[in-house]
Each structure stands twice: as C-alpha cells, then as structure tokens.
Amino acid sequence: MNEKQGLQIIICSGPEDARRATLGFAAALAACACGMPVTLFLVMDGARWALPSEGNEPGAPGFQPVGQLFDSIVAAGGRVEVCSNCVEGVCSAPPQSEPLSVLRPGVVFGGLASAAIRMGQIPTVTF
C-alpha cells in the first residue's frame, strides 16, 4: 500500500465507549505522524467529540484525552469532518446541548456521501 494514499477513520463511538473512540483517535494521530493523509469522520455518537465540552478526561489508560488527540491530529494536518445531522442531536445525545457554532477548531461538516466515496478509494476503519 502506498502510505501517501491516505486513510479514513470513522468514529461512531461516543463518550459512552471512550476506550474504543480513543483508539480510533490514537490510530489517526499515528497515521498523521507517519505522513499519511488522514480524514476523520465523526458520526452517530462519535459526533459528540466535535464539541469542546467532550473528551477532556482520559478515556483509556495510557492515552491522552480525546480532546488532546483531536487537537494534535488537526495540528498535524488531519482533516476532521462531522455529520451535520448527528451533531445537531439527530443521532447523538444529548440533543442541542451546545450551539452548532461552538465546534472544536478544525472541524468541518461532512456527509455520508463523501465518506462513502472515500470508502471506495482509500482504506477505511471504523471505531
């Protein structure tokens, strides 16, 4: 595999399964550190990680909190997309806990169509 090909990581696990989500964010950061183009797609409960109020405590022993991993991924050039429906509370709880204008820096809105197209083009892993 060409390491410059890229990697898509879909995070559908939210704070209730922080260990699984933490592994996904750590894998994304490791890929970024190796020079791979990385796209994170936050969907379902995973969309909650786009909110600055989430991920400030360690979710797994030996790992940084998701918020710190998130910031490092963005700083390393990783792309972070969030499903606009999910972050609005359609898929994740609690609904409307924060206004949409208050997302972590570096987050852009994305959709399943874009994620699906990438699935046909680059390796994709779901956490």
Q: What does the average pLDDT come to?
A: 89
Largest sheet descriptor: 5 strands, parallel
* SS-derived structural category: alpha/beta
**Major beta sheet, strand line-up:** 4-3-2-1-5
- The CATH topology turns out to be Hypothetical Protein Ychn, Chain: A
Total helical segments? 4
How many β strands by DSSP? 5
What is the string of helix and strand elements? EHEHEHEHE
Q: Architecture, CATH level 2?
A: 3-Layer(aba) Sandwich
- In CATH, the homologous superfamily goes by the name DsrEFH-like
- From the N-terminal CA to the C-terminal CA, the straight-line distance is 21 Å
Low-confidence stretches: none
Strand content: 15-25%
The domain count comes to 1
CATH class: Alpha Beta
Spatial extent as radius of gyration: 13 Å
